[in-house]
Amino acid sequence: MENLFKKIQELQDEACRLKEEEKERQKGYSASSPQPSSTWNFTTDRQQHSSRTLPPWDGEWLRAFRKDAGPWNGEKLVVLSLFDGIGGIWAALTRLGIPFTGYSSEVSIPALEVLKAKYPEVHHVGDVRKVERMTVTEKVDLVVGGFPCQDLSCMGKREGLHGQRSKLFFDLLHVLKIFNPSWFLVENVASMTWMDRDEISKYLKLQPIELDSIELAPSKRRRLYWTNIPHPARLPRVKNHPSTFVQSCLLDGIALEEKTGIILSNNSYKSNSCQMELVLENGTSELRYLSHVELERIMGYPSNHTSLCIDEAENNSNPMISNVSRYVQTSNTYHKKRGKICGVGGPTRFCTPPASTLGEPLKDSVRWALLGNTFTVPVIAYLVSPLLKSSVRVLAQPVTISDPVKESECSVMDPDDVWALYNEHERPNWYALILRRSGDRFSRCGRADKKNPLRIEMQYLEITQPYLEGEEDSWNMLRGTGLFELRQQIDCQISWVTFSHRVTSVVKVQDKFFIYPGQDEVWAVCSRKAWSNFFVYVVESSIDISRLQSGRPGNEGFTACCHLLIKTTEHETYRKTNTTLEFTDISLFCFRAPYVFKQQANMLRLEVGAKGRKVRNIESGIRRSKRKRKDTPEALRDDVNEEGEGYIANVFQGTDRVEQKGRAATTDIYDVGYGPQINASIDEESTQQHLADPETIIISDDDD
Which intervals of the chain are annotated as region Disordered (predicted)? Predict the structure, then answer.
């Protein structure tokens, strides 16, 4: 016990030391902040918010970014923030010292009250579904939006991007299409399925950057950000700096952990999951929960950002606003019932608004929800910081959205798309032309668990004979580029697991398809001598379309300039180097690897292989690998035994006839355990032979 009290005293001394260091940093910031241009009266704007207490990490890295960019010398940015919440983008721009004219789209009553109180200069445009071109008469420079995540998060029902709430993404697309801003920043959870992520990337035409706020702030919050603002060249190395610890954000008390968990719209106090870390009260041995003010500081907002009172009588007189009483509490003490649910156990003084305010304060649960649904301010400041440089702003080009943006007309997979599938060695260089798709995310019924099973009808692409030269296995080739032709049979897939990505670098040559490495793609390059491969990032590539009709390898006029990728110590994370490689031989390119940027411009996380592609509610079915050799019972058993035992049972559950151009083609569905889920077509005679031999039955015992 004596050692415990000694440890507590040491922690208290450390807390006092950190507070003193923070005071010194705040003084240093005030003295060394760069003076903005006379085109914007920054001093006046700071005076409007002089009552705000800045959180601690306005510190070294942000100051260094501003110093590197120099003083602001341009016009104000016109910014339109969709799903604005409590104004994360305005807090980030203010911290960066970027002048702005703000327009906000938000419908939540408590969030609107916070915005009006803290950022009175921002204009309000209402519901995002009603925003039209004349809603904002100025030329919009930047559109920001963190659209609802409830249908995408792993904590939700996973109804997907077309779910009831997350489909507001398509209204965001509509705004981008009608305003053609110079830049955009779109945010959502990193736990979404790869299909939803790829569909978002399909319409925004770029790959997201993945960033956990724990790198820049005291809380965990892993998110994906789609933005055409150039990614910062380096991530500030402040993850283990005391200024990004929970302790630096406490008003009093001692943090028992350096970082805290994910702040949700409600974190259960007694739950086994998503519980926030506790704090030791100063001078006592009692533990308490984080307070609202401390949460505000953790998320990067000034103290008491969500502490305000709503005049219930005034708001209820507005026909557009009703039932305000559900957002406010009738006394200055926190609601005990909600305190148990939301974990609000801090001292009462933390959630009591100033005595001079009129009306009733926001409920603690409402304040918590506002903070759980907002941005982490330092992360947004980091991603927007390149706009500090005039050299970046002068290169701005209007964003063009040419695809349909109506939700009912949008889909991750469309007929006539070419998709890559994993082969038997989990290399995504099998290709197929999509004919029809139904069920699963293509169903228009409401609940995800009531949707019809997935069914995708397609035709495989087979590489033409001249491009097969040098390949030892014609069905599991090393190369993933060249001229391909359609198979005659129609095949069927009933699961997403085997699909890798939509092929974008493809040229149709009469009735054939030429696939090649495209710009901003990551490809594996094969070294046949070493029987291995390495990865490159394609900076630019070109082919001569007029020479493709000859069908001769080496006559494509192909050139590619690439940067070499080297693997880091982090799992599946690669660093883009300055080593430049020039290619003219397209046969060296093995397969394309889907990726997301990781934290900064030169770091990428690759998705190599089908691992992690399984998602909930996938219908496990009977399927078989595509192969040309004879499927003997012994061969099929060998395939199964490679993945584990217990898969052998019956061969066919029946056949499914698909009409193709007036004649019937028989398709069957097999399974080879964990391997690729590819279905092959066979003739009637072969079907009868397999049906007569019950020893060759193969079924799936997946628990997807």
Answer: 17-55, 680-704
Tokens of 578: 């300055």
Helix H, strand E, coil C: the string for 180-225 is CCCEEEEEEECCCCHHHHHHHHHHHCCCCEEEEHHHCCCECCEEEE
Say how far apart CA 470 and CA 478 lie, in whole Å.
10
If we measure between CA atoms, which residue out of 410, 604, 608, 598 comes closest to residue 500?
608
Q: What is the 3-state secondary structure (H, E, C) of 115-180?
A: HHHHCCCCEECCCHHHCCHHHCCCCCCEEEECCCCCCCCCCCCCCCCCCCCHHHHHHHHHHHHHHC
Query: Distance between terminal CA atoms of the chain?
Result: 50
**Tokens 């993404």 appear where?**
169
| 8 A C-beta contact, residue 635 and residue 629 | yes
Express each pLDDT in 63-115 by its tens digit. 888 888 888 988 999 999 999 999 999 999 999 999 999 999 999 999 999 99
Q: What secondary structure does DSSP assign to 538-584, as a single string?
A: EEEEE--GGGGGG--TT-S--EEEEEEEEE-SSTTEEEEEEEEEEE-
Q: Which amino acid does the sequence have at 267?
A: N
Q: Is the pLDDT of residue 704 over 50?
A: no
For the chain, how long is the longest CA-to-CA vector? 88
Whether residue 457 contacts residue 659, with contact meaning beta carbons closer than 8 Å, is answered with: no
**Residue (of 141, 69, 83, 90) closest to 111 by Cα position:** 83
Burial of 261 (0-12, 13-18, 19+ CB in 10 A): middle
Residue found by looking up tokens 């964003």 in the block? 399
> Which active-site residues does the annotation give?
149
User: Quick one: tokens of 262?
Assistant: 């994910």
- Global pTM? 0.77
Q: Which residues contact 599 (CB under 8 A, 6 or more apart)?
A: 209, 210, 211, 215, 235
| Helix (H), strand (E), coil (C) string for 356-391 | CCCCEEECHHHHHHHHHCCCCHHHHHHHHHHHHCHH
Reported as a single tens digit per residue, the pLDDT across 459-510 is 999 999 999 887 777 777 888 999 999 999 999 999 898 999 999 999 999 8
Q: Residue type at 308?
A: L
